[in-house]
Amino acid sequence: MEITEANVRELVQQVLASLDGKILKGGTPSVTSAAAAGHGVFPDIDSAARAARSAHEQLMARTLETRRRMIAAMRQAVLGNLDRLADAAVRETGMGRREDKAAKNRVAAEMSPGVEDLRPVTFSDDHGLTLVERAPYGVVGSITPSTNPTETIIGNAINMIAAGNSVVFNPHPSAKGVSAFTIDLLNRAIVSAGGPENLLCTVAEPTIQSAQSLFEHEQIDLLVVTGGPGVVRAAMKSTKKVIAAGPGNPPCVVDETADLVKAGRDIVSGTGFDNNIICIDEKEILAVDSIADALKAELRSNGACELSRAQIDAVTGLVIADAGGPGHEGAPNKEFVGKDAAVIARAIGLDVPADTRILLCEVDAEHPLVWTEQLMPVIPLVRCSDVDAAIDLAKACEHGFRHTAVMHSRNIEALSRMAKVMNCSLFVKNGSAYNGVGFGGAGFTSWTIASPTGEGLTRAATFTRERRCALIDYFRIV
Ligand code: NAD
User: Fold this and answer.
1) 373 lines ligand 1 (CB under 6 A)
2) How many Cα atoms within 13 Å fall on the side-chain side of residue 371?
3) Which of 65, 77, 114, 344 would give a disulfide with 189, using CB separation of 3.0 to 4.6 Å?
4) In the beta sheet, which residues pair with residue 382?
């Protein structure tokens, strides 16, 4: 098919019209109408990649000051649409909580590092002056998840463009409408600040096949993959450089020295955040036996509903599709991923208050709820004989992902042992897991945490190549 502006628009209109009913229910202003104009939305990966290549070349001809203005405009565009983006994501994917998604979008807009992250390094000695600078890769291919659709695109776009790249996104098919809208919104902001068109591109119908085309396309210089184990394995087969942000199963250890009042508050807030669909959210609580009952009382007083043995059996039967265990990551039942605790409770015939944040399930260490990344507010708690046993179980049920771990303790030796043993990209001590990604904790934010390939919390500098330029024997001026 010949690619013309008219037929691209028509195709995008068709796709987005089919989503409109879903996204626009409840009288929300059309989030799809802007995307339907086709700003960055293409019929296939080839045309998207070629447009992104041209945009990258145009970006290289712009000043750094223009790039700074573009990033500022992108941040403002998101901040002006927080509720709209959150609402559209919940409606389209059927997952998560509006207010939490709006908070995630705000943090992505405000705290994703920009151009200031690209710091040149100099060496000066008797042999002259050497400058090391950070150069763009060119065109980045980015795969984004259904669980954080808008915030991953916002964070990736700010970081990757700040680094001088253009991007072709292949979003999760179940978030294609809101992803196209986010890309369109950001592209408009870029152009309004003097940047080129199509710096951010996507396809109207993202699929596994279009992701595969991205992995192999000659115009793509770097792959960045944010998702579960399947997509990480698929991307790693590509001959291109891959930055992979894969799954986690973050354990949360609580020992007998912890501030239990704070731990109870932090754990309910963390495990309930966006209905536990975030990869860093605490997924299992491993409590030292001597304080387990007191901790459970704190969890209940903060909005956890504790299930009986029979209710745990019923909920496990519903929410686990493939039971995880030692050496096997398992998989949740997608129907319940990201659903409210009250919705999951109702599915087993249990009425709980609508504001119930988590369903708390005391189980044995071998239970599948402990070993499977559920991505929903069904949270297992295991009693451990002492803190070392809890840390050892934490290490095992994290499956070696080296993603995220949390600990509540005031014992410096135990905190230090867990930090070393877990060897994770993110270790949060005495807070909610989300405090570690810029919500109420020091540091920048990231929605692409690259544990398998080791970059950790990605930032603008992550998406650059290092280049050295040496002047021999001159310009040491002291
Ligand atoms: P998912 O793996 O189902 O999908 C992620 C993306 O990969 C989507 O765009 C999907 O279309 C694509 N994809 C899936 N299988 C593929 C394949 N074989 N080939 C090519 N593309 C493929 O994940 P999801 O349900 O959208 O997100 C949840 C998962 O992502 C969880 O495991 C979570 O821990 C992980 N995640 C990790 C991070 C991180 O920063 N490390 C961030 C968000 C989500």
Assistant:
1) yes
2) 18
3) 77
4) 286
